[in-house]
Amino acid sequence: MIAALRKKTASLVDYEDAPLAALDRKIAKIESDDQALFEVQLSLEESSGGGTASRLTDAARALLDGTDYDPTANSISQLEIVCKKRAVYRRAFEIGRVAREHLLVERGDRIFASFSSEIAEIERRRIMAALDLQRINRQREQLRENIRSAGGGGSLPTDGRELLGVGETYDEEVNWCVERLIAAGIVSSAEIEKAKAR
Q1: What is the three-class DSSP state of 125?
Q2: Residue 160 vs residues 145, 151, 156, 163, 165: alpha-carbon distances, Å
Q3: Tens-binned pLDDT, residue by residue, of the chain (198 aa)
């Protein structure tokens, strides 16, 4: 059964990883391109001597000096283009990161849901085992009473540990599990009552 579960998990993960892997490749490409643009940006900043602000100052001085200037010349510098591209890349990276988180959550939910039958089976077995243990605990207490009634004394070897008790109405731990499993449709009230009555 364990081998089958592992095979099922592997095939499901391989299938579900396709869109996630594709998005990871896109994000990696964006990061790589952004790093390359960052190096170009550094180079342009070193050679531009101030960029837009410097060109604006030069045009203002030309105006004051009465010399000709073209207010539209170099209105968008190479540095500005690179900066705008990097802004788009940073935004794309953030969008991609959020989309990746959504894909991971959806993938996790689908994987969990694919094990629904196995979850139901193990939860059913677990609660039934707990109810069986409580039944055995009740039998144990009856044995203790029989010993006392016969005039015997002493304690049983594992006294001091309740191990889920005897199934009293105030036994919150098992009752809590029973209520959740009934609500989830994994067991019915009739099944629980039958198990308790054994």
Answers
A1: helix
A2: 17, 22, 9, 9, 11
A3: 455 545 555 555 555 688 889 999 999 998 999 899 888 888 877 776 555 556 666 767 777 777 776 666 555 578 888 888 899 989 998 999 999 999 999 999 999 999 999 999 999 999 999 999 999 989 999 999 999 999 998 889 999 888 888 877 657 888 899 999 999 999 999 999 988 887
Q: Provide the 3-class DSSP secondary structure of residue 175.
A: helix
Q: Measure the CA–CA gap between 65 and 43, rounded to whole angstroms.
A: 32
The number of angstroms, rounded, from the C-alpha of 135 to the middle of its chain's C-alpha atoms is: 39
pTM of the model: 0.61
Residues contacting residue 37 through CB under 8 Å, at least 6 positions apart: 82, 85, 86, 89
Q: Is the distance from CB of 100 to CB of 27 less than 8 angstroms?
A: yes
Residues 6+ apart with CB under 8 A from 131: 167, 174, 192, 195, 196
